[in-house]
């Protein structure tokens, strides 16, 4: 074919950058190791690019001259890039609606995330903080939503999918999930034991309807164990509100060894005088200080909520083990709380 080569190039949205009206730059990631495209450009730098817009059917054809940046600092700044290719554009042809195929590029799309921080929050919970692989903005999320991820685990033919609640403040710059290591958990053990800073994880757009239903109604966040994760995200949103609505944050856990994000919750609560926190330890350690680390001994149950909240017309958000949520739900209904004011979040496959 007269030395010509045609191959696709892919990356997260925005991986091709326009650095001037007549110049594009894109990273070359690891491929099949045949080196056909780069080798051909070394021999003949004339190149053409074809961009397909499947939402509209449009085609954009560019021709120009390529240069390859093999190992400069600019290459290092693009996570995962082996080299950078610059195209100096000489001619442009645009063909609207030229392709009959259509598909929504955002529907169920997968994006690569890069782990930038790994923080141990308690004996069995670790937070994983991700940014976009290309450093660009991420799809936004609402407090209470979860992040579907896919893990490539050695020895398994297919990726393992899990959904983890987002535990940080709503953001388009970073995602944080806080994961409990389950002794027999396939995904959680892989994350805790093998995934380190710099690793890439595939994720889909944040989703879920465990959301604040109103802007002024009182809110009671009730959790146990690692069920605290979506509650912390919701608490971030509530702490930033200008509303004066009452908020109760009620959490049950064994003791200080198993209490993730504890300081974070206390710091958020002091931002607003109408946020009240009550932490119950079922088996406090000798070094756990009542009134500082926890507020009461025992378990979170309907009687405790009745004492703390009283007859408020609040919306209740529940997250934790299935039995815990079922008991709280039953107690609330027995007290006359309407079902539409009780919101629950259950997790997908455990571990």
Content-based structural category: alpha/beta
Placed side by side, the strands forming the largest sheet appear as 9-8-11-6-7-10
| Main beta-sheet strand count, sense and barrel state | 6 strands, antiparallel
Average per-residue pLDDT, rounded, comes to 90
The CATH top-level class label of the largest domain: Alpha Beta
Backbone shape: elongated
Can you write the helix and strand succession as a string? Answer: EEHEEHEEEEEEHEEHEHEEHEHE
CATH topology of the largest domain: Rossmann fold
Q: How big is the Rg?
A: 25 Å
- What is the tally of beta strands? 17
- Determine the CATH superfamily of the largest domain: Nucleotide-binding domain of ferredoxin-NADP reductase (FNR) module
Distance between the termini: 52 Å
Beta fraction: 25-35%
Q: Helical segment tally?
A: 7
Notable features of this structure?
351 residues, Pnp Oxidase, Chain A, Elongation Factor Tu (Ef-tu), domain 3, 3 domains, 6-stranded antiparallel sheet, 6-stranded parallel sheet, 7 helices
Description:
The protein has 3 domains: 17-95, Pnp Oxidase, Chain A; 111-203, Translation factors (Elongation Factor Tu (Ef-tu), domain 3, Beta Barrel); 219-345, 3-Layer(aba) Sandwich (Rossmann fold). Helix content is 18%, strand content 32%. The chain has 7 helices and 17 strands. It is elongated. The strands form 3 sheets. The chain has a 6-stranded antiparallel β-sheet with strand order 9-8-11-6-7-10, with helices on one face. It has a 6-stranded parallel β-sheet with strand order 15-14-13-12-16-17, sandwiched between helices. The chain has a 5-stranded antiparallel β-sheet with strand order 1-2-5-4-3, covered by helices on one side. It is an alpha/beta fold. β6 and β7 form a beta hairpin.
């Amino acid at each position: 074919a007269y030395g010509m080569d045609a191959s696709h190039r892919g990356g997260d949205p925005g991986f091709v950058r326009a650095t001037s009206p007549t110049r594009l730059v894109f990273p070359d990631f690891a491929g099949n190791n045949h080196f056909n495209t780069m080798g051909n450009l070394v021999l003949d730098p004339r190149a053409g690019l074809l961009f397909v817009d499947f939402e509209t059917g449009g085609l954009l054809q560019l021709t120009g001259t390529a240069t390859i940046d093999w190992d400069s600092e600019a290459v290092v700044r693009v996570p995962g890039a082996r080299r950078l290719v610059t195209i100096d554009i000489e001619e442009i042809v645009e063909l609207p609606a030229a392709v009959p195929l259509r598909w929504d590029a955002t529907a169920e799309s997968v994006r690569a995330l890069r782990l930038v921080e790994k923080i141990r929050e308690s004996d069995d919970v670790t937070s994983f903080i991700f940014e976009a692989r290309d450093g660009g903005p991420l799809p936004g999320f609402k407090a209470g939503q979860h992040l579907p991820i896919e893990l490539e685990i050695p020895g398994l033919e297919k990726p393992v999918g899990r959904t983890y609640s987002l535990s940080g403040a709503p953001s388009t710059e970073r995602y944080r999930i806080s994961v409990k290591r389950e002794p027999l958990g396939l995904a959680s053990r892989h994350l805790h034991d093998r995934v380190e800073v710099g690793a890439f994880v595939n994720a889909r757009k944040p989703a879920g309807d465990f959301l604040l239903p109103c802007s002024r109604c009182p809110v009671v966040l009730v959790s146990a164990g690692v069920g605290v994760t979506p509650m912390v995200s919701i608490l971030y949103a509530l702490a930033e509100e200008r509303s004066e609505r009452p908020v109760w944050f009620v959490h049950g856990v064994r003791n200080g060894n198993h209490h993730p994000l504890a300081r974070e919750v206390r710091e958020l609560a002091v931002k607003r005088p109408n946020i009240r926190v009550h932490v119950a330890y079922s088996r406090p350690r000798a070094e756990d200080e009542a009134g500082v680390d926890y507020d009461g001994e025992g378990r979170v149950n309907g009687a405790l909520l009745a004492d703390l909240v009283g007859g408020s017309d609040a919306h209740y958000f529940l997250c934790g083990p299935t039995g815990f949520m079922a008991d709280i739900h039953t107690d609330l209904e027995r007290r006359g709380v309407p079902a539409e004011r009780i919101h629950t979040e259950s997790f997908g496959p455990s571990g």
